[in-house]
Amino acid sequence: MKRPVYQVVSLLGLCVLMGAASAQAPLLKQWASAVVTRSSEYGADNWGAKQVLGEPNTMAYGDNGTAWAAATKNGVTQSITVSFKEPVYASAVLVRQTYGNGFVRKIFAIDTQGKIYQVWAGKDKTQPNYTVNFIATFPQTPYLVKAVKVVIDPNHNMNTYEEIDAIQLHGVK
């Protein structure tokens, strides 16, 4: 007995849909393209918020003007918010630390409508004395992320500034 044509087409359509669902979009990793806001900055140029934009350019651990630092060494919680060229369904944020490592405490994702979601919180266990890429991973967001806010603890090491060279967003289109 022959199957009706519509059943064959339906089975073929189902196979195509299942194949499409199992195929994963390529992971897009993009560096911050604009500063949205910051709690403070040590300088407008050196140690300014704009220093987190683009690919890393601070290669040595230490107090470098090519990384963002808050206006004061210690004190109240500090943060920086950056945006990215391409909104994505996000799954990770990389924070390149170049001085005073171990300071990230929270990361928020900001969707294309401006709504803010906390996607990561915890203790950043990166160690000092070398540049490090701290990567906070989280379940892929069901909304498109256009910006992230990184919250830092300026008091975790009372002897150093906390410095960020670059911020990268990971996700799929």
TrEMBL record:
InterPro entries: Galactose-bd-like_sf, PAPPA_SD_C. It holds the Pfam family PAPPA. The keyword Transmembrane helix does not apply. Residues 23-171 form the Pappalysin-1 SD scarf domain. Keywords: Signal. The keyword Signal applies. Residues 1-25 form the signal peptide. This is Pappalysin-1 SD scarf domain-containing protein. It comes from Deinococcus oregonensis.
